[in-house]
Amino acid sequence: MNRALTLKWFAVLGLASLFYLLAPRDVSPQMPLYLGMTSAAVIIWTFDLLPAVAVAAALTFLYLLTNMAPPEVVLGPWTTVLIWTTFGAAIFGEAMEKTGLAKRVALRCMLLTGGTFTGMLIGFAIGGIILGLLLASGFARTVIFCAIAVGIIRALDIDPKSRLSSIIVIACFFAAAAPTMQFLHTSESFIWSFQVLMKAIGGNVDWWEYLNHACFINTIYVALSFLTIYFMRGKVRLPEGGKLKLILEERLAEMGPMTVSEKRLLVLAILGILGFMVEPWTGVNAVYVLCLVALFCYMPGMKIMEPSSFNNLNIVFLVFVAGCMAIGFVAGEVGANKWAVSSIIPFLKELPPTLGVLCSYLAGVVTNLLLTPFAATVAFTPAFGELGVQMGVNPLPLFYAFEYGLDQYFFPYEGVMFLYIFTTGCVTLKHVIPTMIARCIVAGAFIAVIAIPYWTFIGIM
Q1: Which of 337, 329, 406 has the alpha carbon at shortest distance from 366?
Q2: Would you give the DSSP letter of residue 156?
Q3: What are phi and psi of 241, to 5 degrees?
Q4: Is the pLDDT of residue 342 over 90?
Q5: Which segments within 223-376 are labelled E, that is strand?
C-alpha cells in the first residue's frame, strides 16, 4: 500500500470518528453510529477507494447488523418505484444504444444546427431535451452523448487533455443532465423523488400540471447551462472549414436509413411516455407501464433486442441505487431528518418565501457535496412538506429549487452521471471546475430572477 493510499484510509477513519464524536446524542441512541458509518461510506466514494456498488452493499448490511433500523426500513428502497424505473430505463437505454435510435436523434439535431461551435451546443441542447422526452434515464443519455462527444474529439484530432476536449464532453453532460426536470418522466430519480414528496404532503400533481410548473423555465435553464459553456470557453475554437458538419454527415450516413427496429423502439418509447400522460385518467402507475413496455424489446417478433441479451443487462447498478437510498431511509428511522428540519426551521421561518426558496437551492448544492443525489433526495425530500407547513408556503418551489441545487456538480464522486464523463479520458478536472462554478452561480440567479417570478405568476408561491 503506497503512502497516498494509506493517508486516504487514515482520512476515512479520522473523519468518520469525528462525525461519530460530534453527532448529537439527544436525537437517538443510533445517531452517532449512523453518522460515523455513513460518513465513512461517503468518504470512501469520494476517494474512490473501493467499488461504489460494493460500498453501497456493505453499508446496507452494516445497517442491518448494527440494528440501525428494521430490515423493512433498510431494504425498503427495493419496494420503491425508483428501482423499477431504473430497471425499465436501463432496458430502453440499452435498446436505444443497440439500435442506434438515440445516436440518430442526437446526430440529426446537431446536423440541423450546423457545423459551428455554437451550432454544436444548440444541437446538444435540443438533442438532450428530445432524448429526455424519449428516454427516462439520465445515465443512459450520458453514455449516448459521451460516445458522440468522443467520436467528434477523435475525428477532429483534438488533444483529449485540451480545454476544447473538456468543453465538448461538458456539453454532452449538460445535454444529459440539464433536462432532468424538463418533464415529469425525464429522470428515474426525479420520478421517484416527486412521488415521495407527494406522499409526504398528501397532494397530487399530474404530468400536465407539472408541465406547467417546469417545462418552460427548464428550457431556459438548459439554454443558460450551454451559455455558460459558450462564455467560459476562452479562446478555444473548433477546427475551421466546416469539418464538424462533414463528420456529422458521415456518421449519419454510416448508420443508413432508419431501421424497422428503430421505428418499433420509437413506438414503444412513445407508449411509455403516454403512460405518464394518461395517468390522471387511468389511475395506473406509469412507472409499471414503462417497465412492461420496455420488456417488449425482448419479444422475438419485435427484433429490437435478442432475448438472450437480457442476461447481460447491467442491473448490478440497482444495488448502488438501493444502497444510496438506504442512507435516507435509515436517516428517517434514527431521527436525522427531524433533527435537520428542527435545526433549520427557526432560521427559515424568519425568511420571506423568496429567500426560503433560494436557501433551498443552496441546501441542494451543499448537500450534493456531502451525499449522493439519491441519498440527499431520500433524506430531505419528505422534510419539504413539513418545512412548507411550518413556513406557511407551498412546498413545491422549495423542492424544485432543492432539485436544481442537486444538479450542480463539482467533483466526480458527487454523481454517477458526472463520474462517467471522466471515464472517457477526454475531460480534465481543472477545465471542468470553472465552468461548473459559473453554472452554479448562473443557476442561482436563474432561481431568483426567472423561476421564482414564474412560480409566483402561475400561483404555486
Answers
A1: 406
A2: T
A3: 90, 15
A4: no
A5: none
